[in-house]
Design goal:
Elements: H1 2-16, E1 28-32, E2 36-40, E3 54-58, H2 59-63, H3 74-87, H4 102-107, E4 112-116, H5 119-125, H6 130-138, E5 143-145, H7 152-169, E6 175-178, E7 182-187, H8 190-205, H9 227-233, E8 241-245, H10 248-254, H11 257-260, H12 269-275, E9 280-282, H13 288-306, E10 313-315, E11 319-324, H14 327-346, H15 358-365, H16 368-378, E12 390-394, H17 399-410, E13 414-419, H18 422-437, E14 441-445, H19 451-465, E15 470-473, H20 488-519, E16 525-530, H21 543-563, E17 568-575, H22 582-585, H23 591-598, H24 607-615, H25 626-638, E18 646-649
Parallel strand pairs: 5-6, 9-10, 12-13, 12-15, 13-14, 15-16, 16-17, 17-18
Antiparallel strand pairs: 1-2, 1-4, 2-3, 4-7, 6-7, 8-11, 10-11
Helix pairs in contact: 5-14, 9-20, 12-14, 17-25, 19-20, 20-21, 23-24
Amino acid sequence: MEQALNELIEISRLYGKNKDFTIASGGNTSVKNDEVMYVKASGFELGKIGREGYVALDRNMLDRLKTKAYSKTDTEREAQVKSDLLRSRIHPELNQRPSVEASVHHAIRYKFVIHMHPTMVNAVTCAKNARQTIAELFGDEVVFVPYITPGYILYKEIEDQNELYKTRYGKYPQVFFLQNHGVFVGAESTAEIKEKYDWIINSIQSKITNKVEISPLAVDGRFSEIIPAIRAALSTSTLKVGKLRNNTLIDTFLRSDEKMSHLVNPFTPDGIVFCGPRPLVVEAFDNPQDTLSDFQSKLSAFRLASGYDPKVVMIRGLGVFAPGDNINAANVVIDVFEDVLKIAHYAMNFGGPNFMNPVDVSFIENWEVESYRKGLIDKGGSSATIKNKIAVVTGGAQGFGKGIVEGLLKQGAYVQLIDMNDEVGHQTISELETAGFEGKVVFSKANITRSEDLKKAVGDVICAFGGVDMLISNAGVLRAGPLHELEEKDFDLVTEVNYKGFYLCTKYFMEPMKLQYESNPGLFMDIVQINSKSGLVGSNKNFAYAGGKFGGIGLTQSFALELVPWNIKVNAVCPGNFFEGPLWSDPDRGLFAQYLKAGKVPGAKTVEDVKKSYESKVPMSRGCQPEDVLKAIAYIVEQKYETGQAVPVTGGQVMLS
């Protein structure tokens, strides 16, 4: 079985990586002999699956499902069947949960079974002429099964269809088309599985006359004044992140009332589980406030009618927004919903859309098994303080800023890294993605002294994650020297970046924060300036830097007073010296080199002499590290009372009195 299992993993990854066949943890696969069946465990994505994603089941125990008497009540019956499936596990200590369709895999009389939800297949199975079309295309080679709720009842129907087909044709069927669901294909080899799927997809595509080319479309600039408010309004039980998408397919629906009417009810169980029974549709007006008023009105009506929040928001003229408990969940929702649009579009070739009936929809909405599967997509652990916060870190490509970015990501935040250095910025993103943070961090090249750069950066982070909860104003420069040597251009540069830059970042990133508060007054947001101990005490022959940092604390206090009505806390962290970072240790432009040249440390002959002098001034006998600053940031974010404060993180070098 080991070789067969390896072949199963290979073909599962092949189809699992192709969104035209399945999305997220949808679909399942198996391989079996007379004694044991390996079937996909719930929650595993086929595109990434390995040996650990398959649960071994005892087929003798599975055979008992056929004759055992179960409750006639849906919920009791499915609970009993689930219990029996769990008992059939050969290795229960692994705590794997077999797919709800494991019994169907057992029933199909072939070694390999691959169950998928291909877009093209569901364009037919979710159409009014599904049975007729499948008969015309595939004849007696396949079995069409009218919609039956996944689980035990479907298993029993497959068993019955097996015997009917065997009696009529002398063999067991290999292909089962399930109305409003997908397709099961069985074969004795994975090569034959591929042949069957190619035959199915090519046959259906030959009847498609309205093929659509999907390409991205630019998002209307109004989204920056709309999406943060929607995200905040939907952040009731937990803080959401979200994904905004617009493309030619989405736009086709948003512009057509007829096409939108094809979305009023769901097509498939996956559509219900991930996208809900229907989207919330909002009109986009020239004035974003009018759009938000329409959203709030329709959201109230949606909640009243259904008792829960929408999982998909369609905004005419803008695109589709999907909130999620984490970015993976949001991406899955928007991918599944785009698949729903494709199904609705292509179903027109086969008589038009055929929706699931309300009874079946209600069953799926309340089905524990599907709730479990979706819960595995939604899960994401981390610090409760920072988790799901959307943070913007300026100067985040290297040094202290990079350390802050890494720390926030580890605590569960989503981060926009802003930096002027395009090459280093992309290199840092690549490193972070390799470290496991793919999809959780984005880079925007921006000069924080330029308004246009910052306006674009605001749009970038909203499009990527849905809003802004934290601004970490970290970008800064330093030019040291005595009064008689420091040139005016250096003074102007330090002042512009360290002082004006903080002002401009606050000016633009506070806007989405205000929108979020107005939509959900229970939210608190934070602006944190990474200041310096030089903002607390003067710095000899470093007046340009110290002056800008003193001014930064003045801005912090003033911004705090102005923004507190929107629950935006504004505080500063004043770190000691980060000796290991490039700001200090760069051999040519680092502060140690600058201070040596400026004669700031009497008697120093080398850069190492300067470093030792500075280390000796710290009672804790070391420089400040990013993790020290992160702890201060975590305190600032977690507390909900202090604002306008400057928190020293200096190892005792600067003590407040």
